[in-house]
Write a structure and sequence with these properties.
Layout (H helix, E strand, L loop, with lengths): L8 H9 L5 H21 L3 H16 L7 H8 L2 H8 L38 E10 L9 E6 L11 H4 L5 E5 L5 E7 L4 E2 L5 H8 L5 E2 L2 E7 L6 E7 L18 E2 L2 E3 L2 E2 L5 E2 L3 E10 L5
């Protein structure tokens, strides 16, 4: 076949990709062609616009390295990451709501004893975090691994300032006790902009959008026989809750970070300055089969 035009090209490409031996690859390829061609036919790009689109994707790739993943930012800001998350967690009755992983998770975080201060001396308002991990039916999950990470008081993650800090901070793995409980100290995180000095930031400007995320603490929780939970807990009252640039906020994940006056903290520590506290009880979905 040859001499394709706008009316015949789509079917010709679909016929070619239908030769894929793997059924799932064939399904994905055909859907991609159908929707991509439909998009192009709808917007009817000029040649300069098409070239600009190719340039945008090229710049996005060039921005990716071991500290930054611009394609994840692109997926997040277009709502694709949350759409994929929602599709993969349709049947999670009784379990804590999930949300995006984000680009700042570090594999294999250092393990800290319960009650530790994981802030590594970072300046900021002290924050006491406590919670529990249980199955969807409420049965405690002893020994659950709780990975936590968050920004500093200026909205920066450790990996964004690793050279200045000389290492990681404000992240840890804690192991829940026999009743599934955990607690630790850190500093209160702040709202922050996603990295917006690249092509994704340019896109947001064109779309008339800001780059900010509301303040939150990340959690990734692992327990035998259960699906891994990836979620955040957001600070109630944050001005960006209704306009999170990555569409990650859910009402069930918003909690008060309660301001406490100096005195004895929940773990018995004597606090000489005001501090905030957060408590959240997590529920995990049992694994299928």
């Amino acid at each position: 076949m040859r001499n394709f035009d706008e009316n015949s090209i789509t079917q010709a490409v679909l016929a070619r990709v239908s030769q894929a031996s793997d059924a799932r690859q064939r399904e994905i390829s055909q859907a991609l062609v159908r929707h991509l061609h439909a998009f192009v036919k709808e917007v009817e790009p000029t040649m300069p616009e098409w070239e600009a689109a190719i340039g945008f994707l090229t710049r996005t790739g060039h921005m990716c390295d071991d500290k930054r993943q611009e394609f994840i930012l692109l997926s997040d800001t277009l709502g694709v990451s949350m759409l994929v998350d929602a599709i993969n967690h349709r049947d999670a009755a009784g379990a804590t709501d999930t949300t995006v992983l984000g680009p700042f998770y570090v594999q294999g975080p250092s393990e800290f004893p319960l009650g530790s201060n994981i802030s590594d001396g970072m300046k900021g308002e002290p924050l006491f975090v406590s919670g529990s991990v249980a199955s969807a039916d409420g049965a405690p999950l002893a020994g659950a691994a709780v990975d936590v990470w968050h920004s500093d008081e200026d909205g920066y993650y450790d990996v964004q300032q690793i050279e200045e800090l000389g290492g990681l901070a404000m992240r840890a793995r804690l192991i829940a006790d026999a009743q599934g409980r955990f607690h630790f100290w850190t500093i209160k995180p702040a709202a922050y902009p996603i990295p917006h000095d690249g092509p994704v930031g340019d896109m947001l400007k064109v779309q008339g959008r800001h780059p900010y995320r509301p303040a939150h603490v990340h959690f990734m929780i692992h327990a035998n026989g259960h699906d891994t939970l990836v979620t955040h807990v957001f600070v109630a009252g944050d001005k960006y809750l209704d306009s999170d640039v990555v569409f990650g906020v859910k009402d069930s994940l918003i909690r008060e970070f309660v301001l406490n006056q100096p005195g004895e903290a929940p773990d018995g520590r004597a606090m000489t300055r005001p501090y905030s506290s957060l408590h959240y009880d997590f529920r995990l979905k049992p694994s299928a089969g």
